[in-house]
Structures are given as structure tokens and as C-alpha cells.
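From: lab user (bench 3)
To: helpdesk
Subject: output format question, protein + magnesium ion

Hello, I'm new to running complex predictions and I'm not sure whether the block I got back is the full result or only part of it. Here's what I submitted:
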Amino acid sequence: MNDNVNHLPQVSDPFMSPKSISVVAPAYNESEGIIQFHQRLSTVLHKLGMKYEIVFINDGSKDDTLDKLKGIKERDSHTSIINLSRNFGKEAAMTAGLDLASGDAVVIIDTDLQDPPELIIDMIDKMKEGYDVVYAKRHRREGETFIKKLTAHFFYRVIQTLSSTRIPADTGDFRVMSRRAVNQLNRLREHHRFMKGLFAWVGFPQTEILYNRDQRFAGNTKWNYWKLWNFALEGITSFSTKPLKVASYVGLGTATLAFLYALYIALQKIIFGNPVAGYPSLMVAILFLGGVQLIALGVIGEYLARTFSETKNRPLYIVGDYFPSTLSNESIHTGTSHHEAREIELK
Ligand code: UDP
Ligand code: MG
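Helpdesk reply: Thanks, we reran it on our side. This is the complete output you should expect:
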């Protein structure tokens, strides 16, 4: 990423009334629903009456999602396809899409129709009131278990306590962003991409609109509890170093208690001549401290591992094939404010 291009504030940014819109849509094994998705989305984009492109990212799908996308592209020149060389995960797929999107406004949407495309119209209206980012906040979670809802709620509580970046609760990636917000977001090249946090970190006027999250149109979610747990760890370690400090305070507390206890035992021996307590208390103390130390090491390990993978500085994703849309080709030729950055990214 070229810093000289992207860190400049875009003074006359057209975000108040975007003239073109890019929709970034990551797809991993979405073959069953992708055509319906494209139809519903296209209807909405036609209604908007702006220039548009749909940037599909095929994130190493194992089914025939790519063939379906190629079929769509043959019929509709508004579509771009970024075919990643393998499955890099949704975060990397979105990043690829954001890097190559060329519109004044950029929408991120899931391809499983859980994010209703119709909402984009309301989002753009809201954006015109002067917001750089309009994100969709769900007020009902259809088809999700009680446990999932509970853990999600708990997660947002924890991260809000630990992090100084305000990360809005119950929001996914479904949102529209102005060109300047996207340009700034594209400067964040960290590998552990907790996107909700990155979106919030970038700042600019942001607002929410409420919606009901639908059930998946087809196929299955790629989430399970182990993945969710790791996702939560990602969020916490990316946006807070407080867990590292906990060890110091636990250590301080334990040391103080140990000192007091030692004093107590010594006095008992001197004043009352009681025999020194033996095996059970010793065992408890050793096991307790051993446990605390291992937990602290584990916490350090989590951060260390992340530091390790950041220092390797590998690319965030690898593009196998790229089939640009007409909008994308146009903006390369007319030279809009952001195309230089995109060209650099393409090299
Ligand atoms: N996705 C992706 N790469 C992955 C996993 C998911 O691009 O490795 C896409 C997927 O095709 C969908 C979106 O990310 O468009 C959300 O995925 P999913 O529906 O599994 O997540 P959920 O909606 O359950 O949070
Ligand atoms: Mg989904």
C-alpha cells in the first residue's frame, strides 16, 4: 500500500452525494443462492439510478460458485470477479474487494441474502445526510439459537469494557462507506483483521440503521463455537492489551496474600507453638500458583503469536484471476482520486 497516496485527506470528497457505488460481496461456497442474490441486488441498484458495480470475491469456494459468477458476469457487465488463489477467510476477501472497488460509495454485503439488499437504498439516503459510514444494526436475530445470542451479547460487553475503540454491538459487516473512509480503511494492513474494530477505529461520522437479519437463503453458516471463540480472541487481542496487565496485578495480589499468610504462620508457631500445617495447604498453593502462571503464559503467548505473524508481513490475500467491471475500467481510464492507489495494489 502506498502511503503517500492514501494518507492525504480528500478535501472535496464526493461523499455527500455519491455518483457511483461499488458493492463488495464475498462468497465462499454460495453456489445455491448466488444467482438469487445477484438478481435481488441488481433490482435494488437499478432503482438507485447511480453508476454501479458489484465486486464478487470468490474466496476459494469448493463448489461451483466461480462458474456461477462467470455466468453472471457474461450477462451483466456491472460485475467484477476477484478470484482468490485459495480460501483466505471473509476478512481477507472483504479487504480484496475494498482494495479493488472503485465507487464513490462502497457497500459490503454477505452473499447468502442474510443482509437484505433493499436496505442499501435507506443506507444511501442516510449517507446523504452527511455520514461517512452507515452500518446496519440488527434488532432481531432470526434463526439463531439462544446460546449464540447470549454469547454474542456477552462478547460485545467484554470487548466494550476492554477496548478504548467504541465497537458498536450487534453489527456485522453490512454497511456503506464513503470513498474517504474506504481509503483510510485500506491503509490498515494488519493481518489479524477484526473488521468491526477496524471500521470503528477509522472514525468519521458514523451512524446505524436497524434491520431484521434474515435467515440464510441456502447453504450453511461457516461458523461454529470454536471459530467464534477464536474470533472473540482476535477481537480482544487486536483492540486491547489489558489482558497482559492482568498478570501483573494477579501476581501482586498473590504475593501480598502470601506474605500475610507467612506472617500468620510464623506468629502461630512463635506464640502458640502450633505445628506448621503441611501437605494440603502446600499442595493447594503450588497448584494454584502453577495454574495462574500457565494462564498468564498463555495470554502472553496469544499476543506473541500475533506479533510473530504480523512481522512476517505476508500479503493479506493473493488474487488468482481478476475480471474487472466496466465501472472499474472507466475509473482507471478517467483517473479518479483513488485510482492510483488501486493501480499500486494491482501491481
Ligand atoms: N465468507 C467468505 N469466506 C469465508 C467464510 C465466509 O467469503 O471463509 C462469506 C460467505 O460467503 C458469506 C459471508 O462471508 O457471504 C458470511 O458468511 P457466513 O454466512 O458463513 O457467516 P454468518 O452470516 O453466519 O455470520
Ligand atoms: Mg450468513
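A quick orientation on your result: The first helix runs from residue 3 to 6. Let us know if anything else is unclear.
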